[in-house]
Amino acid sequence: MNSDANPISTLVWTFALMSLFAVGGANSAVPEMHRVAVDVHHWMTDRQFADIFAISQLSPGPNVLIVTLIGYSVAGVAGALTATVAMCGPTAILAYYVSRLLARSSHSPWPAIIQAALVPLSIGLMGASGLILALTSDRSWGAGLMTVAAAALAFGTRLNPLWMLVAGGALGFAGVI
Amino acid sequence: MPSDSPPAAVPAPEIPVPIPPNQPGLLELFVAFAKMSLAGFGGVLVWARRGIVDQHRWMTAEEFNETFALCHFLPGPNIVNLSVVFGSRFRGIAGGIAAFAGLVGPPMVIATVLAAVYARYGEIDALRRILAGVSCAAVGLLLAVVFKMMTPLIKKRDAVGLLIMVAVFIAIGLLRLPLQAVLLVAIPLSLAITYAMRRRVNG
């Protein structure tokens, strides 16, 4: 935490803007969150950011929870609430109006074109999220191996992802990672 | 409100509708989205499809895909957009808010409690080791999603798409450029290329 004049308004401004640029969902914006929270505002250390990502994945619910946790660590419960609403509000309002607009003219080719154009962007962004988080989390061979194993299992099987998180926690507790 | 009772406020339609959609009430929207959300570790989408299409039959699979496609091309958390669009389709703005509150509210409480525990006990060695292990696995799960999304691009041999993907990855992941700046260049570029390619394909 640093000594910003009003951390709440910084949270609102930061995440409301990020919301409109989070192409492909909250996970695409993880590099930007990392840049803002660790490098720009010094709200937390690299390691705390990795921990917060882990906690957000451990909690059930949408990926946007990482924003809740950043808000919480900056300004407590009030910060958690404002950050979450700021991250969801602008895009939810946009979604509401666009869906009403499209309900009237459902034969427009544009939704398909926009989607096709944005998919590569969001994959690139999520790949960058993966890289940044791997650099902060995987500090040993065991850790790297765990990441690769979880990726392979989640890619190749229909196993509930919760089991991989639990396995990671157990191996971490045992001191393997 | 039981899901299979006919909506009282709406007059019964005289012509039978092709798909008899159940009309969820506000409380029902809240509860349904809270359930999907709490079941969804590492992504709510699967559970949202199961709840909306299979369980409650509020939408056909096709309607769900269309709605999700819309929410995917819009920025922001997809599943949050989906909850708002879905809720408001049935019950207006209040419905959108009810579904959103169900989706985000209960998990937010859980995550905040976990964060409070972390803030207090985060330096304890055992907890540190557990969290380190969990985050390694969580990164793996994220990478798996990336590979799954990449597969169709590779199968289609979409060279342009893959090139844009790699360019964004380098700009954000390696060069650590600000998101807004990168997207203000990448979005118009990608749109223009996609549009031009479609026109060429369609003649």
How would you describe what is shown here?
The complex is a heterodimer of chains A (177) and B (203). Chain A has helices spanning 7-21, 30-40, 46-58, 65-104, 110-137, 141-156, 161-173. Chain A is mostly helical and 177 residues long. Chain A has a domain at 7-106. The radius of gyration of chain A is 18 Å and the shape is globular. The model of chain A has no long low-confidence stretch (mean pLDDT 88). Chain B folds into two domains: 15-121, no CATH class; 158-203. Chain B is built from seven helices and no strands. Chain B has helices spanning 26-39, 45-55, 61-73, 78-121, 125-155, 159-174, 179-201. The interface between A and B is large, with 106 and 93 residues.
Number of strands of chain B: 0
Helix-strand pattern of chain B, N to C?
Answer: HHHHHHH
Q: Give the largest chain-chain interface (CB within 8 Å).
A: A-B, 106 and 93 residues
Termini distance of chain B? 53 Å
- List unreliable stretches of 5+ residues of chain B: 1-20
Let me know the average pLDDT of chain A. Answer: 88
SS field, number of helical segments of chain B:
7
Unreliable segments of 5+ consecutive residues of chain A: none
Spatial extent as radius of gyration of chain A: 18 Å
Estimate what percentage of residues of chain B fall within beta strands: under 5%
Shape of chain A: globular
What is the number of E strands of chain A?
0
Listing every helix as H and every strand as E from the N terminus to the C terminus, the arrangement of chain A reads HHHHHHH
Number of domains of chain B: 2
Query: If helices are DSSP runs of H or I spanning 4 or more residues, what is the number of helices of chain A?
Result: 7
Structural class of chain A: mainly alpha
Termini separation of chain A comes to: 29 Å
